Request: fold
Amino acid sequence: MTTTATATSARRAAADGVLDLSRANGNLLVLAHIYTATLVLGIGALFGMLQGFSRANFIVMPPWFDYYRMLTAHGVLMALVFTTFFITGLFTYAVYHTIPRARSVRLGWIGYCTMLVGTLMTAVAILDGSASVLYTFYAPLKASPLFYFGATFLVLGTWVVAADIIVNVVWFKRHNADQRIPLPAFMATATMIMWLIATLGVVAEMLLLIPWSLGWTQGIDVGLTRMLFWYFGHPLVYFWIMAAYTIWYTVVPVTFRGRVFSDGLTRLAFLMLLLLSTPVGLHHQYLDPGVSAGWKWLHTVTTYGVVIPSFMTAFAIFATFELAARKAGVRGFVGVVRWLPWKNPVFAGPALGMILFIFGGFGGIVNNSYSMDVLVHNTMWIVGHFHITVGGPAALTFIGATYGLVPALTGRTLFAPKLALVQVYLWFGGMVIMSTAMHWAGLLGSPRRTADVSYFGAQGAATWHPEMVWAAVGGTIIAISVLLFIIVATGTYFADRHADERPVFDFAATNEDALDTPPVLDKLGRWAAVAIGLAVLAYAGPVAAQIQAHAYLAPGMRTW
Amino acid sequence: MHVHRQERLWMALGIAMLVVFLAVITTAAVVDGFVPPSHVQSIDPTRVSETPPFDHPGLRKVADGAYEAYYVARVFSFTPASIDVPAGARVTFYVTSADVEHGFSIPETGVNTMVTPGWVSTVSHTFKEPGTFLLVCNEYCGAGHHLMAAKVVVK
Reply:
């Protein structure tokens, strides 16, 4: 059968409301991404809960699966694997859905399989204990080559997905020269371009680490690998945020018949995020020796630049709420808040994530405050911060969207929708408890990434334990919530209840009076060039200083 | 492209906030010298125990009330394990690693820096009140990371 014929039959099947998992329309591909993310979230959450128990001294992990091995697995699975699979799946869907055409999904599958193989390689290395290096894998801790190869394959897989997305958008532009790229596809492309630029850093780092882990080179420039890692490490968080924003701008309004507030301003916000994501990474290295204070200050300035697209987004989201409510005859702050569909998990997940993000943003301002960072660097405050950001706005938004995506992809009704609703609120409550305790422990000076914070009963450490107990309580609630999520997400498939009307996962239209988008905003290639230029400007100096300094190479070692 | 009046106002507020933050941080850095520890001095991590002054880590008095403390971080301990200083002493810590990445943090004092093999970190602090301060490694360094601690006794 030709691709065209398959695509036609797939479209017909979709129109008839028949279960449709044919390969050609990409539904199965997207579902593979989403379910992989779901499974990974489940494993990661279990490890997270056990970590909470360990730090609260409820349990001691056995030597064959010690705390740091588990911590490495938790960090890699949550920060690198769960998020990445969900996001590449979401963007593949956004592009396939808004650019309908007869297409081959081969490239998409190659990308997915490469990511999966990479993930499995990394997982084996972590589980067999040869890679307890945490998700930051700071040299000269030396993991087995399998770990670095696996991580590299995971990234290369995302490059293939990015290529698939770009191929589709270029096709669209070629056939619709007079039209703008559909908004969700534009957001997907801008984000993946940002991702390509950012991941160059980690791939460059791998080019140093892989030969070294194989024993081909004797030492490693620790400062340089740290700089390359954080060149990638901060844009990684914007990768999550831009995906969450894509859902906030274009999916959330659908749940209350709203429209995108402004087409042009949305694109502008995404372009700013594309430009401002990479030239900022040194704010993770404020306390590093070997990097001068001037370069760190420069990155403070660029990091704060993200205030602008963040404020634009906050305005647009709340304006979307209010305009839709007014159209329905509702006015006033309380009226609008009450009117919103809090009983729909596709809305409630992202909306609760937005609430958490307000506090996550406040914390981020503290972390980026140059000299103030000294008080919180490498304390539990930072752990609280990233749980209320990636574990709040990002994860809750992805979970909410999964409740919309899985029924649409499988043509089945959501299994136990009430459980889904309970799940997002449980997550929110658990995260508030856990993150508050972590932030507070951090202010009291409790270090992060430690199996035990009792320090032989030292006086200074006595105040940390109660906070760790609260963090364990919050972590348990989140883990229960994740279990419910898995039941609903996979139950939807296995319960196999076909909907009378095929569920859709659609993107909102734009307010008609906000469509006069300047064409220059659509020229993603040019904006990508500007983004590369900014990254070079921000990093050429510090990297050159790092290479010129008499940096000694450190021999690798395994200290676990 | 149309931008609503309220949105212009909102954005102006955001940008004003940004300017204020940066002005405060920059003023504090330039006028008061509040900059993060950013010492640029390299050292061969394989020869730390032969390189002065780290061949004899410990506390040195440089003037009345002014001390320098040289530390070597090595899995899973700090050398020296304990130092005694009088209340009111200003101590400048010099720390380097003989193996992997470590952290050097004295909670509730503002003493906090990364310790990177190949580099010397430095940070200063005036210990005003007497007491026993816990000094911890706050960057993961291996299986015994949570045991890596020392103390500073202020008398």
